Amino acid sequence: MDAPSELGDFLKSRRAALRPEDVGITPHPTRRRVTGLRREELATLAGVSITHYTRLEQGRAVGASDSVLDAIARTLRLTDDETAHLKALAHPGTASRPAPARVEHAGASARQLLAAMSEVPALVLDRRNDVLAWNRLGHALLAGHLPAESPDTRGARPNVTRMLFLDERYRDLYTNRDEEAQLAVASLRLIAGRHPDDRRLAELVGQLIVQCDEFASRWARHPVRTCTSGVKRLRHPLVGAMDLSFENLVIPGPSGQRLIAYTAEPGSPSEAALRLLGGITAPETESASA
Q1: DSSP at 278
Q2: Which part of the chain is CATH 1.10.260.40?
Q3: Count of other CB atoms within 10 angstroms of residue 205
Q4: How many Å apart are CA 42 and CA 37, to the nearest integer?
Q5: pLDDT by residue, tens only, the chain of 290 residues
Q6: Which fold has domain 108-289?
Q7: Is 208 helix (H, G, I), strand (E, B) or coil?
Q8: Pick the CATH number of 3-90 from 3.40.50.2300, 3.30.160.20, 1.10.260.40, 3.40.30.10
Q9: What is the separation of C-alpha 44 from the centre of its chain, rounded to a whole number of angstroms?
């Protein structure tokens, strides 16, 4: 993922998506060959020189101030996430070479917390969405078709983004799968912009582009969005439909690890289904002592 080309592609995609009439420009019906804004129009509206803006679309962002980027973001009507993404692409890190492809691991305290959350499905992910650890119910909820030890197995560690596009059984869990796919790509775009030197992240994106046309198409549109909480609508093969709230809890440290926990509304059919899943998938010794 080359930061200069990513910057140019992102700006072009947002400029093409903004219609002239959205910003008060009346397009001539016979002279206009583009559907979005022209570079000159955007530069004028943002109050920057066309030369300066052209350099940005060419990936030459050296010297671009936050005030200029904010003016362009306002003109393009970017969201807060998209504005942060624009600045990350314009001001990438100073690393001169890709960072080593270091394998992350969940810490002992995070694993202890997962084990203590016996009635709450939970898992620990790194910033690439690799599953570093899960508790018994988290495994049963999301990936019961995979070995429970797979997060600790070399070469077999699950990645929830990869699974959403390449694992049919995981993909079929989501009743609103199209929305999940869009959010997954948008979230990965945001992380990729913040970490352009992450070799393993680049390899994940490359694999998905090559192996999944849907991912490649969504990635090319440059969606950007973060999501820290919400509701997952699932259809589990063992217990049926469930609407589960989720929360992302950031684990302190530079690695970007986070814990995701899922809960159901008390007294709801989803809570009953979650309890049933826990009983069905409990180890025999645990069931016998219950």
Answers
A1: H
A2: 3-90
A3: 21
A4: 6
A5: 566 689 999 999 999 988 887 777 776 665 666 678 889 989 999 999 999 999 999 988 877 899 999 999 999 999 999 999 999 999 886 444 445 556 688 999 999 999 999 999 999 999 999 999 999 999 999 999 999 999 998 889 999 999 999 999 999 999 999 999 999 999 999 999 999 889 999 999 999 999 999 999 999 999 999 988 999 999 999 999 999 999 999 998 777 899 999 999 999 999 999 999 999 998 865 545 55
A6: Beta-Lactamase (3.30.450)
A7: helix
A8: 1.10.260.40
A9: 33
Instruction: Give the separation between CA 29 and CA 210, rounded to whole angstroms.
Output: 40
CB 101 within 8 A of CB 165: no
What is the Cα–Cα distance from 167 to 156, expressed in whole angstroms? 13
Q: Is 24 left (phi over 0), alpha (psi -120 to 50) or beta?
A: left
- Structure tokens given for 138: 């988290």
Residue 239 tokens read as 């217990």
> Which pair of tokens denotes residue 257?
């690890």
Please list the residue range(s) of the chain that carry CATH number 3.30.450.180.
108-289
Residue keyed to tokens 């955007």: 42
242 contacts 236 by C-beta, under 8 angstroms: yes
